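Review form for a predicted model. The reviewer records the input and the model, then writes brief findings.
Reviewer: anonymous (R2)
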Amino acid sequence: MESLSREAVWKMQLKLTTDYAIRTMLYLAIKGGKTSSGEISEKMQIPQKFLLNILTDLRKAGLVQNFMGVNGGFSLAARPEEISLLQIIEITEGTTKINRCLEEDEYCSRFATVNCPVRKVYVTIQSEIEQMLGSITLASMMDRSPRQAAPAVEALPKENEAEPSAALPQKERAAAAAETGL
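Model under review:
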């Protein structure tokens, strides 16, 4: 089967939660080590409460570790090359299946999943999607960034420097995001 067309992918859309989770995981990968939720929230411009819910889901799934106390924070629970986009997306989306008949129970209103020619096409498309998302790791995303990981972290504002605020106009926030590569 040919690769997925742009039109087919264009009509599918990930939740905002998933986008935030991917950006959070990439930020943790770039930073390396422990990072506070406050820092992640501020740098990624994700509301703190929303971020904490995402981090809780990622921790329960075993993708991040939580460290308690004054010097607490979050870090990846595995190396960046061991964490794929598929893993993150499956946690936040609930399902990655493109049609109900591909779920574990193989529900079909026509009771025809075994012989259905449409389902056979869906299975092929689903396989391509999962293979592609499974092959993209946090490490490969770091390699694809306009700069390598270390410069991207160095480009982040220091604690005593002025920071882009969520109150900034969209154009200025976009420029700040481009500066960090995330």
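Findings: The chain has a mean pLDDT of 80.
Further findings: Residues 84-136 form one domain.
Recommendation: see findings above.
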